[in-house]
Amino acid sequence: MGGLPRRTTTLNSLRSGNLAHAIVDAGGSLSPRELDDLDAARKKADLVARVFARDGIDAMALSERDWRLGKPFVEDLVARYDLPIVASNLVCDGERPFPRSRTVLRGGYVIGVTGITDGIVPGCTVTEPIPAVTVALAELSEADVTVVLMPAGRTVVRGLDDVPVDVAVLTGSAARLSIGDTLPVATVGRGKSLGVLTLLGDKASKGVFSAERVSELQAELVRRENAVREARTKLDDAGDGAPASLRRRLEFEEGQARDAKAALDAYGDGAGAWRARIDDVALDDQVADDAETLALVKELLAGLDARAGAPILDDAPHLVAGHGAYVGSDACLGCHPAEHAQWAATPHATAWEALRDDSHGRDESCVGCHVTGWQQSGGPATVETISAYRSVQCEACHGPARAHLRDPGRIKPVKSPDLSTCTACHDGDRDGGRFDAETYLPRVRHGESQ
Predict the structure, then answer these.
(1) How would you class 436 by CB atoms within 10 Å of its CB: exposed for 0-12, middle for 13-18, buried for 19 or more?
(2) Which of 24, 141, 251, 366 is the most exposed place for a label (fewest CB within 10 A)?
(3) If we measure between CA atoms, which residue out of 50, 24, 276, 278 comes closest to residue 151?
(4) Nearest to 434 by CA among 139, 175, 106, 164
């Protein structure tokens, strides 16, 4: 999650009919990605832990993000709510503060769960994860299904290729990896959806196989190969004077295509494995809010608002006074009316209102992707100072423009922002994994002649 959940349904309400699901979390749910406000982050963590405990979560891992809340705070939170942490690679003062693994009996099957922790834990040793997971899995040899919770990056997760585990629950940049005979299941951040893995039939010999996963990988490979061809055509058409951005785009798409092919090749044919279905349950208006949880969230958000100072002026001009680096999109309007009009019709122009209407306008774990220049040099440093910087304005993509405004002939803004500008927020976690450059960029890109 990383922030407060957008829907407040109980976990128990999502247990489907007579199917008995084990509920696990791969880490990062207690803490936001940016820890700008420690007091607020700890209040949110307490709420998430309280709801997890109430609804009976079966196993959890702790990530580097969670430990940033402070080791004493995390230890107290775990003890107070009796959270079922697994951490195969954590040793503190010569002892293991959490078990390597745990088993859960569901629907007549034994589900064995292990996991790792990630990051720096003061006073403790975080050992190499893959050997630790291998030892933990040996403890689970009698389990019908084994699951590993991996709050780690791609390099670490790739080490699971030769580890005999059925399901890996992944986070962040590792979410799209394919891992030998192991079925990868990605967690989607910020409480917007719930991943549900349903095993069908009896396990024969090894692994978990999802026909839907193979179809997704095949479609991804086709899409990436098409993107490579399009990028190469644009580069060829531009000739010797092609801008560096076109070469970077081709290199990016080629890398994505290589990764997609490797993922498909690694998946195999699933012979002798569990058959599985993966569902992404959107926690939208079709899923009813839980009254008790909703009341807790509203109480917390009201408490954050109560600490606030100056009001945010929703009707203030997008014009930044003074001598800072940013000028605001209203200053761009005079020379670039067509581009401004095109931007004004995109969701970027109302990003602040969307956050405010969702009652997260003072949630600093969310604000940074809904305003311009957040905590950058010359940008807003606190929620109380964002009025003129509301929403994703011109300078969020093209860079601060004060210098350009003073000397437009000599100093130019970034004409074609690199894709990394987009993925700073559309990173697969913050946006629920929905971002796709081929479909998103045409919605916000100005005309070719502009």
Answers:
(1) exposed
(2) 141
(3) 24
(4) 175
Give the strand pairing for 101-106 and 109-115: antiparallel
d(Cα 219, Cα 213) in Å, to the nearest integer?
Answer: 10
Of the candidates 287, 292, 284, the residue with the CA atom closest to the CA atom of residue 14: 287
First-residue to last-residue Cα distance in the chain: 39
Q: Answer whether 378's CB lies under 8 Å from 326's CB.
A: yes
Q: Give me the long-range contacts of 340-343 (CB less than 8 A, separation at least 24).
A: 340/394, 342/446, 342/447, 343/393, 343/394, 343/444, 343/446
- Residue 195: the pLDDT is 77
Residue 415: alpha-carbon gap to chain centroid: 28
Contact 185, 167 (CB under 8 A): yes
Task: Give the integer Cα–Cα distance in Å for 304 and 172.
Answer: 27
The span from the CA of 260 to the CA of 293, in Å, is: 39
Q: Is 9 helix (H, G, I), strand (E, B) or coil?
A: coil
**pTM greater than 0.90:** no
DSSP 45-94: HHHHHHHHHHHT--EE---HHHHTT-HHHHHHHHHHHT--B--TTEEETT
Give me the DSSP letters along 144-204: SEEEEEE-S-HHHHHGGGGS--SEEEE-GGGTT--BTTBEEEE--STTSEEEEEEEES---
For residue 418, the Cα-to-chain-centroid distance in whole angstroms is 20
pLDDT at 2: 38
